[in-house]
Amino acid sequence: MSTEKCYLQCINLDCKCTYDISDVLVKCSKCGDLLDVMYNWNGHEMPRNLQFFQKKWQNRNNLLDFSGVWRFRELLPFCDEKYIATIGEGQTILQCNDGVASYVGSSAGKVHLQYEGLNPSGSFKDNGMAGAFSHARMVGAKHAICASTGNTSAALALYAHSCGMEGTVFIGSGKIAYGKLSQALDYGARTIQIKGDFDDCMRQVQLVAKEMDLYLVNSLNPFRLEGQKTIMYRILEGLNWQVPDWIVVPGGNLGNSSAFGKAFAELKELGLINKIPRLAIINATGANTLFELYEKLSIRYNGGNVDTEAIDSYYAQLDKAGFKPKTLASAIEISRPVNLKKCLRALEICNGVVREVSDDDILDARAIVARWGLGCEPASAASVAGLKLLRSENIIGPDETVACVLTGHELKDPTATVNYHIERNGRFSNKPVEVENDIDEIIRELKK
Ligand SMILES: *Cc1c(COP(=O)(O)O)cnc(C)c1O
Ligand SMILES: [Zn+2]
Could you tell me the distance, in angstroms and rounded to a whole number, from the CA of residue 298 to the centre of ligand 1? Predict the structure, then answer.
């Protein structure tokens, strides 16, 4: 145990190696496991209750109080204020949505949507980048790099530019939604398309970052997760500091779910909440590693004693079968989630469940969410499709309070939306009709 106010620690209980907060590491140098940002809370001045944060809304001219991440900086105190990176991230809303409640079979007033599409780059990734780029500035990094299914690259591009750093992104060839690609290019990131999928990019980017000494901002970076904890703080704030019964989130690389577990464990430890919500993580059926491992093979965190052999043999099977993940929810088309172990820990902390939902169910849910006012991209709607499934199984009760995280904006992937309406014949498809350029024909069509 370190006596520093803040340090990095390996999550492997047999190792628990600690590192200085200003070290640039995304994995333990000794055993290769993931790292946590750890705080000796006694060394920090802590608020006595969560209402403390609400007052900051009154200082909206102070950039740190304006940021939906740094407004909560007492809960992620790893960085001197002079290094903090912020572009106004986290101005997101929690909307109580009875249209969606009715669709999933919940009572009115019980279903809330945490709409992260309102972030500057249009996805929750900005919360994490605010954390990672603050650390990057603290250590004097010059060049940030990531692998991305799209949104990470958009967020990297925006933050790298605003911090005066170079940015490079690796994306799988032909695998990225147009809205996201347009952002990476537009904001000036060097964009490398690798002939492979996200998992291939993720492998390469770790090797390249190490070899070339570049600053990696994928969610392996523990400072990303510090920023993403604040999504949960904002949900609590939206619920007037009442803890909901359930948080539902799509699962890709599992950074969000890992961050959420850490957020709640810390709030509980600090005595700022007295109950921890349950966590439901939703995979797409075409990219369902977590579902297979957790629900089918019953792999558990087990207080830190994870059955890594069983996981390795599962991955060996995927390799042998030449498995490639496939889903229209491209942001979660990932078969080797890098944060798996931290996510298992979060599932233990939050007494969690994992489900898989089909692309059809995701796209129908996406259309319903959009129709009720919050356009989101397909991956985001996995949370609502997952809630509908968990309601039908009665794992989630009709009167339980639920917050679904809508991770990204609808305009990230307009192709998915248009294809749904024109080609897919989904439950809520709304096909355009073509008529002759003739007033009688137009009126005849409108009277149908
Ligand atoms: C990155 C992303 C996800 C996956 O989140 P993880 O933290 O990697 O599990 C889900 N939805 C959207 C829109 C994303 O951009
Ligand atoms: Zn270690």
Answer: 24
Token look-up 């790292």 returns 35
Strand order from edge to edge, sheet including 35-39: 18-20, 6-10, 35-39
Q: What percent of the chain has pLDDT over 90?
A: 94
Question: pTM for this structure?
Answer: 0.97
Distance between Cα 41 and ligand 2 center (Å): 23
Is a pLDDT exceeding 90 seen at residue 43?
no
* Ligand 1 contacts CB of residue 386 (under 6 A): no
Interatomic CA distance for residues 211 and 189, integer angstroms: 20
| Local structure of 343: helix, strand or coil | helix
Across the chain, mean pLDDT equals 96
**Nearest ligand for residue 18 CA:** 2
Per-residue b or e along 60-89, where b marks 16 or more CB atoms closer than 10 Å to that residue's CB: eeeeebbbbbbbbbebbbbbeeebbbbbeb
93-120+225-422: CATH class: alpha beta
- 331 in contact with ligand 1, CB cutoff 6 A: yes
Query: How far is the first Cα of the chain from the last one, in angstroms, to the nearest whole number?
Result: 73
Buried b (16+ CB within 10 A) or exposed e, 263-290: bbbbbeebebbeebbbbbbbbbbbbbbb
Type and span of the H or E element at 278: strand 278-284
Separation CA 307–CA 312 (nearest Å): 9
pLDDT tens readout for residues 327-374: 999 999 999 999 999 999 999 999 999 999 999 999 999 999 999 989
Q: What is the mean pLDDT of residues 17-23?
A: 97
Q: Provide the strand spans (E) within 118-197.
A: 143-148, 166-172, 190-194
Give tens-digit pLDDT for 283-307.
Answer: 999 999 999 999 999 999 998 999 9
Sorted by where each begins, the domain ranges of the chain are 1-45, 93-120+225-422
